[in-house]
Amino acid sequence: MGKKVKLGVIGLGQRGADLVKNVYSEHPDVDFIALCDVYTDRQKEVADALVEMGRERPQTFSDYREMLLIKELDAVLICASWDTHSEIAMAAMRAGKAVASEVGGAYTLSECWKLVDCYEETKTPIMFMENCVYGRDEMMVYRMAEEGVLGEIVHCEGGYKHDLREEISFGKENRHYRLDNYIHRNTENYPTHELGPIAKVLHINRGNRMLSLCSMASKAAGLREYIKEKKPEDKALQNTVFQQGDVVNTIIKCSNGESILLTLDTTLPRAYSRGFTVQGTKGMYMEDNASIFLDGDEGAKDHFEWKKQWGNVERFREKYEHPVWRDYLKAGVKKGHGGMDYLIFSDFVRCLQEDLPMPIDVYDMASWMSITALAEESIALGGQPVAIPDFTNGKWIKRT
User: Fold this and answer.
1) Which stretches within 79-108 are classed as H helix?
2) Measuring CA to CA, which residue among 377, 380, 358 is closest to residue 109?
3) I want to staple 34 with a disulfide (CB 3.0 to 4.6 A). Which of 8, 24, 155, 347 is the partner?
4) Are strands 153-161 and 259-265 parallel, antiparallel or unpaired?
């Protein structure tokens, strides 16, 4: 048990409330001393839940700026709407409060640069809470890549392929922010679930960087069809023209020569997938059929025989399981997206306690979030290539 971290949580909607009530409250080294949300019913619901767990009732706020005045506050967890993450994070850093920011895409490049400048000015710790980096398969594949098992990495793919039609269409009723984004924007609006693990495999911002992207979007038809069937009484929404394409594909070129394909697919009926795929000169990993294909391994020579090996990922666990997950499985996996949520939060707390660099830092946050703003520009230009800034200002060449 280390030094207790006194935490404040900003944003208590579906994501924030779930994390506090069902996942992060299990951490023995964290005291939840403050909660903030613009809706008072959300404040009360989460505060009551903490009391029922035997914890002290936290102070509650409607304005995060008032919360940041609490002297004993060590850190804040930001789970508010996408458009507020950067603004709140910068205010917290200037107040000397460490930041754990939930994910989302940026609205402008200026927003990303301001985040980096604020961190470099204040040196307040900030971590981007991209939980998928801590996924069991993602970490095993990262280890395999690091050990050269997959050879030289050439191409990676990932996606946020998640049927969100109900969540988006009932956004007003649920006080959820996605709806406005789908009405007004057309972009890769949620890139980091897929990009985060890929960026780690490719050493982005640590010996490699993303150079440019081009993005194309399909028509927007899925939400219109869904609303017609599921919300026939909502005439205003039925007459709304959605800008967000149903399927968006974004291709990224990296400094070391690799290519990345990201796919957003959230407004059509489909099974959930993050489509994580890593291809190298000696083998590949495919999430969608839970398979690892290694050159020279059984089934590798005959593609018809190889199909019999689909779903073979468990065969590689004993040899390539990441040590973090090996220990986690022994200790007992916690709640939250198969254990990823608790794992990333524990890393944030540990880095604060031991004064260590954050494993997903402000440069990762800025570059991963920037894909949304850049894809929006590329789509508007008919798929033209758009340059991706170097938010490290050249430090990526020697960063480890």
Assistant:
1) 85-94
2) 377
3) 8
4) parallel
What amino acid occupies position 301?
Answer: K
Q: Is pLDDT larger for residue 175 or for residue 216?
A: 216
Number of Cβ within 10 Å of residue 315's Cβ equals: 13
Write the DSSP string, 183-215: HH--S----HHHHHHHHHHTTBTTTB-EEEEEE
Contacts of 225 (CB under 8 A, 6+ apart): none
Neighbours of 226 (CB within 10 A): 18
Burial grade of 104 (CB within 10 A; 0-12, 13-18, 19 or more): buried
Rounded to whole angstroms, the Cα distance separating 29 from 17 reads: 19
Please report which helix (H) or strand (E) contains residue 320, including its range.
helix 317-320
216 by DSSP, 3-state: which? strand
The model's confidence at residue 31, banded by pLDDT at 50, 70 and 90, is: very high
Confidence of residue 308 (pLDDT cuts 50, 70, 90): confident
**CA-CA-CA-CA dihedral for 199, 289, 162, 231, to nearest 10:** 170
Tokens linked to 4? 């207790």
pTM here?
Answer: 0.96
* DSSP states of 217-253: E----HHHHHHHHH-TT-HHHHT----S-SEEEEEEE
Q: Are 174 and 278 in contact (CB under 8 A)?
A: no
Measured between alpha carbons, how far is 225 from 246 in angstroms, rounded to an integer?
Answer: 12
CA 121 to chain centre: 25
Q: Over the range 344-376, which residues count as b (16 or more CB within 10 Å of their CB) and which as e?
A: bbbbbbebbeeeeebbbbbbbbbbbbbbbbbbb
∠ CA(282), CA(287), CA(291), 5° rounding?
Answer: 55
* CB-based contact 190:160 (threshold 8 Å): yes
Phi and psi at residue 394, to the nearest 5°: 90, -10
Secondary element (H or E) of residue 63: none
Domains in the chain, please, with CATH?
Answer: 5-131 (3.40.50.720), 133-321+362-397 (3.30.360.10)
56, burial (CB in 10 Å: exposed 0-12, middle 13-18, buried 19+) = exposed
The tokens describing 263, both together, are 């796919």
